[in-house]
Amino acid sequence: MYAIIATGGKQYKVAEGDIIKVEKLNAEAGSEVKFDVIAINNDKDMLCGEAVANSNVTASVIEDGKAKKVVVYKYKRKTGYHKKQGHRQPFTKVEIKAINA
After folding, report:
1. Cα gap 66→53, rounded to integer Å
2. Terminal CA-CA length for the chain
3. What does the pLDDT profile of the chain (101 residues) look like in tens digits?
4. Quick count: other Cβ atoms within 10 Å of Cβ 71?
5. Are 37 and 5 in contact (CB under 8 A)?
6. In terms of C-beta density within 10 A (0-12 exposed, 13-18 middle, 19 or more buried), how is residue 83 classed?
7. What is the 8-class DSSP label of residue 43?
């Protein structure tokens, strides 16, 4: 059994026990969060739309962190222009506890 959830403008395929990194959430480590469900596959059929309107996925927040640095380098030839910039995207690591269909 798995579910498709939506958070942070992205969609994730999750099952119970999965550990995923999502866009940063406003939650403390150890707290519970609930995600909206787009679709659920219960090994027999795929449910979506009105069939999953009252469903949710419960997850436990493990930690917050930052991803590896992405280096952005801008360069224009012959003008002496170059600019180096780095970015680390913040994330929240969560563990999926239950899929409530």
Report:
1. 33
2. 10
3. 899 999 999 999 999 999 999 999 999 999 999 999 999 998 888 988 888 888 999 999 999 999 999 999 999 999 999 999 999 999 999 999 999 87
4. 8
5. yes
6. exposed
7. S
